[in-house]
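Protocol step 4 of 5: obtain the predicted structure for the target chain.
Materials: sequence only (see below). No template structures provided, no constraints applied. The aim of this step is simply to have a reference model before the mutagenesis design in step 5. Sequence pasted as it appears in the construct record:
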Amino acid sequence: MNSKYIISKEDFIDLEVIRLYRIISVKSFENIETGTKGGYIEKEENLSQNGNCWVWENARVYDNARVYDNARVCGNAQVYGDAQVYGNAHVYGDAQVWGNARVCGNARVCGNAQVCGNAQVYGNARVYGDAHVYGDAHVYGDAHVYGIAYIQFGKCEIDIFEYENLEKYISYSLGVFPCNENYILYKRVNQISEDIFSSCFDSTFKYKIGKEIEVKDFNPDISNSCSKGIHVSTPYYWNLGDTLIQVCVNVKDIITCQAGKLRVKKVKVLKKID
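Step 4 output (structure tokens):
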């Protein structure tokens, strides 16, 4: 048998009803020396005996997940479910890849990033920070997804922070599109009177139906999600406030799209949603 590693039954960790075992190399390959201790797997099907793939440090691969070709899983990363990591892909840090997700090519998934559902990350794509790629999303080419970004819809083959591609990025994250350079979006607020509402976070900041509301001292940093500005999203994003209002946002007033919402300079309040 042409094995490159063995499973140590003496060195294991328990995850609820699953036991994972440390792997130990039994031959040298690429930059792995004979006797090198790797990470943890549940069974041999999780890590191919062929190629130069390896599970490093305290990384964990289990369930029906598979790591093969020249892929690397390192740090405290976890790969599980029916996920696959292959090609020259690297998954490391505290990243998680699960569900039916695929990470391949020269892709990198790291930090606290999560790739799950039927999502695919491939090519030279990078997913890192606290980014989530899920649903049927595809991230590929030279795309970078980072910060607190959420990618659920469509295929992302661009750097999401290039402003000329902002419309595409918003469509991937929120599933909405502009009409005549305007987005119709929503936010939850607290009702004061029939047509006046206050912010859930600053009771002095008011919204009035039919009026444009503007933040003059907004934070221009596009990598910062929760900062000075007006936050708007789809109707299902919000869980604070007693009232949902509909607003119009012009493309030129968008500061950034992060964490499933837009942070903007100005909105026009259209109506209260009953």
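Step 4 remarks: Residues 177-273 form one domain. The mean pLDDT is 89.
Proceed to step 5.
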